[in-house]
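Minutes, project check-in

Agenda point 3 was the complex the collaborators sent over. CS summarized: two entities, 876 residues total, and the question is how they sit relative to each other. Sequences were read into the notes so everyone works from the same version.
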Amino acid sequence: MRLSKAFQPTLKEVPAEAQIASHRLMLRAGLVRQTSSGIYAWLPAGLRVLRNIEKIIREEQDAIGAQEVLMPTLQSADLWRRSGRYDAYGPEMLRIQDRHGRELLYGPTNEEMITDIFGSSVSSYKQLPKALYHIQWKFRDEVRPRFGVMRGREFLMKDAYSFDADYQGAVNSYRRMMLSYLRIFQRLGVRAVPMVADTGPIGGDLSHEFLVLAPTGESGVFFDAALEEQDWLGRPVDCDNEEDLAAFFSSVTDHYAATDEKHDEAAWAEVPDDRKREGRGIEVGHIFYFGTKYTESMGIEVSGADGAKFSPHMGSYGVGVSRLVGAIIEASHDEAGIIWPASVAPYKAAILNLRPGDEACDAICEEIYGTDSENFMYDDRSERAGVKFNDADLMGHPWQIIVGPRGAKEGKVELKRRADGERFELPVAEALAKIGAA
Amino acid sequence: MRLSKAFQPTLKEVPAEAQIASHRLMLRAGLVRQTSSGIYAWLPAGLRVLRNIEKIIREEQDAIGAQEVLMPTLQSADLWRRSGRYDAYGPEMLRIQDRHGRELLYGPTNEEMITDIFGSSVSSYKQLPKALYHIQWKFRDEVRPRFGVMRGREFLMKDAYSFDADYQGAVNSYRRMMLSYLRIFQRLGVRAVPMVADTGPIGGDLSHEFLVLAPTGESGVFFDAALEEQDWLGRPVDCDNEEDLAAFFSSVTDHYAATDEKHDEAAWAEVPDDRKREGRGIEVGHIFYFGTKYTESMGIEVSGADGAKFSPHMGSYGVGVSRLVGAIIEASHDEAGIIWPASVAPYKAAILNLRPGDEACDAICEEIYGTDSENFMYDDRSERAGVKFNDADLMGHPWQIIVGPRGAKEGKVELKRRADGERFELPVAEALAKIGAA
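CS then shared the predicted structure for the full assembly.
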């Protein structure tokens, strides 16, 4: 994309209510625009980040055998009455009446709907296990929306639901999701640590929150360094093998990790000092086993091997997709702007033409841009070099390819790595190879 | 995907209210499930079709320089008061109050919002032209939803908006969109003919509907055969060249095409008899120039070359994405089921293992499946051959790869083309080549 034509309206000044870095930077860099309180429009560069995150989630959910569906945003109140949650849910639920006076709601989550769809589609234990997910806009009518997309009202979420014949099956499903989530966050380029969370009346230990480490996080976190050192992508786990899943799961849960709410000083004391990590975190995911709560309350049964009917065990698994854009920025930025991990960056590099109109500069820029115009942001504007440097830093492209008249004459460009500021003067082909290999 | 594991719940019986073929077939083939009146959940195979359509639209919109954004589903009533449409819009608008009593609505379209975003982002004629589009769920509270996804309440739509400095610029934008739409529909494998539509108080000739030809269409259509014979994908048009755009546009609008509402017997009489085509059509797109209607009413201005402020000219351009799934089926099915055009088919072929457990059959099926498991639907169920044939016909995969014990021993499979039923007995490699090349 040529920046001269791109719809990426950067802002010099941001509204005073933008208190945190990600909110300010997303507005300044032209990624989103607020359209109502807690409701945002995604501009092209922001949407590209959102799509990159979705793609990684989709690939890793598919990899463990989850299947993608797409449920609507609006649900009938009657569906929620069947589970008993319609009246129990507080004012965060957006309740709506249609033209015939029928009660609808904007879905804040989809347990009821997926259970209903499952129940009308699956009749035998032979069809289990099943895991279904969707990536859809949700609405929670926060009393005081703030922090930009981190606590908005209309937000994009990936929610998955598993259905198993028995508790052990549900445990396996849960463990597969744990693995999928660890891989997702690793690919997103953030450190997200799973921490034991409340299970409520269900009990047991099958509830984990995933927190992205960031100094501005809402929760204090305490965890064993082992949890941030592992390479989940490189670790082979046979998801159809119960023992393999169990071994993997132990390698996570054997290590201490807790938010300040659940912090246990006695257990913490047993962690070797050199492995203690403290910090703050932002919740970006939650996985949860809840047994037959919805299948029973909604009367959903399937036939077992012996012909007897039973209510399948369920779990639900959420990732805050739009929230992650903010969380990633909280975890990865500096004074000058965003520092995108390569996997989610809207463009892999900016090409900064320091002298548009100079024959050598234009030729080199066009040559580079032509190799992959879809994934470069070419700053071809007639602006001062300083403006271009600042905008590139603000937008956070992993690399800047700086093309000035002196180097251009020799066929050279300056490559700047956004993350650490390191610079390399290289011939064009070598610069492209370095970006491609990174 | 292995059909034994796939979440594709086919139905033997469909509800009586499913009156038209696409509605019945989408339910029977397990593509969608109704969750409330006029509101549908998309099951995996249906979602794949929807995504294939989106991808083609996105590529062809990007190709003419339109940029993708994503606006939220909920909008503030105040935004619509600025254009004067809030009170004018009828009961099809779903009006909502949030917990603070603020008035929201579920967007039926986005002229107001995009104009507002544009106005707060663009300040100079130098930034024009701009074309922005998004693909997002909309809601229209139809009094009597019916025909499945063809006239649902929550529906997926691609809507684009163009902003130009003057009328001639807007004409160019309009012509680019006309080209983009013709290419989109051609790639989708349907015949969609542009027909002059009402312009209302704006006047002029810049309003066209695109109708997919299908015997069950809601409108009668009359058009010159020239319009369905052209290869828009093979025709080079320089979208930056006004003369090129004008020549292309004439090649469309010089030929007669009208729905029964706008039919003109005198003009029709001038079309040579051998070029007259009559039929029925389903509206799947609409492009429309409306001048400064929204920029003026909402007070949006940019600076011109002379420093004077002016209100940009706009057009809007819609494609009914979810409706298209139904329209494609209406245009392409038979008694046995759906006949998917290859470009939108959820899977490129079904592999029918006629004897699971037979060593040769299993080996050949696994070999074929392994070459591209993402894009084959492998019917590995222990069902009778007749059930598999019927389900494959119903689901409408472009090809069926039929693997029976006799052929398997010789390394051969039977290939059936769904569209015309033609069969080919071929060695595996040749069968795969034939499918790939088709």
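Noted in discussion: The first helix of chain B runs from residue 21 to 28.
Follow-up: revisit at the next meeting once the mutant set is ready.
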